[in-house]
Amino acid sequence: MGLFKKRPYISLKQNPVDVEESEKTPMIPDGKWIQCPHCQKTVYLEDIGEFQICPNCDYHFRLTPKQRISIMTDEFEEWFNDEQMKVAVDFPGYDLKQKKARQTTGEEEAVTVGLAKISHLPFVLAIMNPYFMMGSMGQVVGEKLTLAFEEATKRKLPIIVCTASGGARMQEGIFSLMQMAKISGAVQAHHLEGLLYITVLTDPTTGGVTASFAMQGDIIISEARAIVGFAGKRVIEQTMKEKLPDDFQQAETVQANGFIDAIIHRTQLKETLKTILSLHSLEEEFR
Fold this sequence. Notes:
The protein is of the alpha/beta class. It folds into two domains: 29-61, no CATH class; 62-280, 2-enoyl-CoA Hydratase, Chain A, domain 1. The chain is 38% helix and 17% strand. It has ten helices and nine strands. The strands form two sheets. The protein has a seven-stranded mixed beta sheet with strand order 3-4-5-6-7-8-9, sandwiched between helices. α5 runs parallel beside α6 (174-192). It is globular, with a radius of gyration of 24 Å. Residues 32-287 form the CoA carboxyltransferase N-terminal domain. Pathway: Lipid metabolism; malonyl-CoA biosynthesis; malonyl-CoA from acetyl-CoA: step 1/1. Belongs to the AccD/PCCB family. Its EC number is 2.1.3.15.
């Protein structure tokens, strides 16, 4: 019996060389690696950590609301999660697109709002979700953001909005565009009460969101390399018939042109917001 060595099973469709090579090649489990969209390197998921940052090029991966809440707050209580569209929209396939977005993200809509705390400092927090129809702004998103500002005004609280959006949701037509004015009105009412509004621009912040409440903050912060602009780069290039620079609409370029106050590394964002909220709280005490 010792003269015979057991051979691996080889199907008629399989090359013996392939079997031999496969025995030498280590198996890589699925879902453990991700390709960085900036440096194109393959990164082990555990290496990007809770802040979701590429260890090779410092690229900030896009985050879900739950991930942002985890790294930005000590406490969070969600509000207005049962909001529905006020006007029915009959756009082909829209219901299926929304259903798929809900199943994929586990969220009801493209923005999450609620009452948050960093240390002992309370504030209203709104986080737009780039994974829910690219954070597009429709009736429900507009209503939830408006209610967030109104509640912040009523409670005399600061508000922080993390923007991430492709703009107004085209399936809802004029009803999505109306949200720009509605939210801006609520922002102004909050401002007239002398309350603090901070925007945190994340990748991407574009379209009607940029043209309204994203740029209305008292303090405008951005994450590194976030795309911030109105029309898309390709649209502008096609219209102007010229090639735009690689860093066009990148946060660093937007800051250099005076539209952003500071670019804060994601690992320092919570501490930075805590400092701003603390200073504002002290100012309120001395009024």
